[in-house]
């Protein structure tokens, strides 16, 4: 019988960390998705309400800024806003200062949905992280940010352990 080559400890730990993060992330996201569905919106639509309701812009948030803030393509943000407009949760109006700019603002109904859902999500987060201390949650967040941001300056497929080019 041919045995597969033994796996390096670092490789095994990395795979286990990835699988755990993937499973937990999917589970936590599904829980939030369910809360959103119960309010008649999707999780991405809740994210739009989040940006709008926490904005300091009294006239509304420019559509382009909204897409940037959500890390979405403009077409995706437009579809999300279209659905929220159809539900009466946001309005879309031309900017009085620049007709090329469309401003998006939450309606009072949209704010009410956001506030109710946010309270439910905060309660869910307390449950999700309830077995960890605040220090452990802080450390987990720090480590996940470290892992994420250490990869951001790299090209796809490039390893973080590539030696820097030598200087002559």
Task: Describe the protein in words.
With 168 residues, this protein is mainly α. Helix content is 60%, strand content 7%. It has six helices and three strands. It has helices at residues 9-38, 43-53, 63-70, 74-86, 108-128, 134-151; strands at 61-62, 90-94, 102-106. Strands 1-3-2 form a three-stranded antiparallel sheet. Strand 2 (90-94) and strand 3 form a beta hairpin. Mean pLDDT is 87; it is low at 159-168.
Strand order of the largest sheet: 1-3-2
CATH class of the domain at 31-123: Mainly Alpha
Task: Give Rg in angstroms.
Answer: 21 Å
Q: CATH architecture of the domain at 31-123, please?
A: Orthogonal Bundle
- Structural class by helix and strand composition: mainly alpha
The major pleated sheet works out as:
3 strands, antiparallel
Could you give a short description of this structure?
This protein has 168 residues and is mainly α. It is 60% helix and 7% strand.
Question: Topology, pairings included?
Answer:
Elements: H1 9-38, H2 43-53, E1 61-62, H3 63-70, H4 74-86, E2 90-94, E3 102-106, H5 108-128, H6 134-151
Antiparallel strand pairs: 1-3, 2-3
């Amino acid at each position: 019988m041919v045995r597969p080559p033994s796996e390096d400890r670092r490789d095994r730990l990395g795979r286990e960390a990835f699988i755990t993060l993937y499973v937990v992330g999917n589970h936590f996201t599904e829980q939030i998705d369910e809360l959103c569905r119960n309010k008649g919106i999707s999780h991405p639509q809740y994210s739009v309400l989040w940006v709008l309701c926490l904005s300091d812009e009294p006239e509304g948030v420019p559509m382009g800024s909204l897409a940037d803030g959500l890390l979405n393509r403009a077409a995706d943000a437009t579809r999300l806003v279209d659905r929220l407009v159809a539900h009466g949760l946001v309005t879309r109006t031309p900017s009085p200062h620049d007709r090329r700019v469309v401003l998006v603002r939450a309606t009072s109904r949209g704010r009410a949905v956001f506030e109710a859902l946010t309270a439910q999500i905060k309660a869910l987060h307390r449950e999700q992280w309830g077995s960890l201390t605040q220090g452990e949650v802080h450390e987990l967040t720090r480590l996940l940010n470290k892992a994420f941001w250490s990869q951001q300056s790299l090209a796809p497929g490039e390893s973080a352990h590539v030696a820097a080019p030598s200087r002559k």
